[in-house]
Amino acid sequence: MKIVFTGGGTAGHVMPNVALIEQLQEEIFYIGTNSMEKQLVAPLVKSGKVTEFLQIDACKLKRKFALSNLLVPFRLAKSIAQAKKHLAKIQPDVVFSKGGFVGLPVVVASKMLGIPAIVHESDLSMGLANKISSKFATTLSAFPIKNATRVGAIVRNSIKNGNKKQGLETMGFDGSKPVLTVVGGSLGALSLVDAICQNSCLAEQFDIFVVTGNKTVNCNFVHQAQFVHNFGDVLSATDVCLTRAGANALAELTIANVPFVAVPLTKQSRGEQVQNARWFEQQGCGIVLNDSNLQQNLQGAVLCCHNNRHAFVAKQKQLNIDGTSKVLNYILQHKVG
Questions:
Q1: What is the CA 178 to chain-centroid distance, rounded?
Q2: Among 46, 76, 86, 94, which residue's beta carbon has the most beta carbons within 10 A?
Q3: What torsion do the CA atoms of 297, 299, 301, 306 make, to the nearest 10 degrees?
Q4: Is residue 234 located within the same domain as residue 246?
Q5: SS3 assignment, position 243
Q6: Do 142 and 9 sit in the same domain of this protein?
Q7: Using CA atoms, how far apart are residues 59 and 104, in angstroms rounded to an integer?
Q8: Please, what is the angle between helix 104-113 and helix 72-90, to 10°?
Q9: pLDDT tens digit string along 307-326?
Q10: Do the bridges between strand 138-141 and strand 240-243 make them parallel or antiparallel, or are there none, so unpaired?
Q11: Please, what's the b/e burial string for 70-80 (b: 16 or more CB within 10 A of its CB; e: otherwise)?
Q12: Can you say how many angstroms the Cα of residue 46 is from the centroid of all Cα atoms in its chain?
């Protein structure tokens, strides 16, 4: 069986694909741009899990008025033609898209070639690219969304099988204090880090670990790393997490039973993170703060999460949001013979 995966633009459109690929034994190809998805899929190509990464050019439609939007139809036509050429060569049994502007031309090209496609939406509201893609594909979702089949979130297997001892070693802690982990997603966590640095009193009660992305934190009371490959281990040693509110991130924290303080990203966003954060807060999984009052409210929120950790974890355990196996089943239904 041949499967083509696509999706990109942010890590949230790539890492769920990686989670699925890691559990498949089929012949797998990935179509994406020369950007984040290529970097994140490169280890899978090197290990042989992905046969080949095939490149296209893709354009992002800006939601506000911009002259560059006038060129979108021409750029989209070019990217569809590129994707169509790749698909005609591969002849896959199915295409799976995690969304983003990178996935749209691949889904459209699959429709033109008569290749079945599946789209999965992680957020509580569907993104523009997935809205368009859903007209040409079977549409799945992590949460209840109109015109989509709810299956649950796609989660890395390693998140569910973390090793606390290895997590503490990765972060450089001895386990004598509870651990506060800070993550910000691919769009960064500068305001989260600034708030931590302005709340040095937290270091008296917590060991603080920051995943910085491509940045370095100038703060002498935190441990930091740009990237963590064994994030499941880190989560297993984490007592509270300060995070942005990407749906994948909140789902993984919930499944790993880590209470969180979520700070939704509002800039460079269509508002989906606010919806994600409020939904998980309503389920009792964490607390939501805004960037505008983060520094003054951070300590209280972190302490509330930690002091009521068992109550938060009990609520998280009641949620059945892991849909990874259901999504795999949808993909493998297209296997011939």
A1: 26
A2: 94
A3: 180
A4: yes
A5: strand
A6: yes
A7: 10
A8: 60
A9: 999 999 999 999 989 999 99
A10: unpaired
A11: eeeeebbeebb
A12: 22
**Alpha-carbon gap, residue 54 to 33, rounded angstroms:** 8
Total domain count, the chain: 2
280 confidence band (pLDDT: 50, 70, 90): very high
The answer on 179 and 307 residing in a single domain is yes
CA distance 278 to 286: 9
State what percent of residues in the chain have pLDDT above 70.
Answer: 93
- Tell me the two tokens of residue 5: 């995966």
Q: H helices of the chain, where?
A: 15-21, 36-47, 72-90, 104-113, 128-133, 164-171, 190-197, 231-236, 247-255, 272-282, 294-307, 309-318, 324-332
Question: Based on the domain organization, do 8 and 28 belong to the same domain?
Answer: yes
According to DSSP, the β-strands at 179-183 and 240-243 are: parallel
Q: Which residues have a Cβ under 8 Å from the Cβ of 286 and sit 6 or more positions away?
A: 250, 253, 259, 260, 261, 262, 277, 280, 305, 312
- Find the range with the poorest average confidence among 103-117, 182-196, 257-271, 297-311: 182-196
- Calculate ∠ Cα 11-39-153, nearest 5°: 30
Residue 74 pLDDT greater than 90, yes or no? no
Q: HSE on the CB side for 44, CA within 13 Å?
A: 26
- 231 and 289 in one domain? yes
In which domain, by residue range, is 231 found? Answer: 157-318
Q: Model's pTM, two decimal places?
A: 0.88
The Cα 229–Cα 215 span in angstroms is: 16
CATH label of the domain that carries residue 236: 3.40.50.2000
The answer to the question of residue 222 being in a domain is: yes
Looking at the structure, do residues 313 and 327 belong to the same domain, yes or no? Answer: no
Kindly state the greatest CA–CA separation across the chain. Answer: 62
Position 213 scores a pLDDT of: 75
In a shared domain, residues 302 and 288: yes
In a domain, 337, yes or no: no
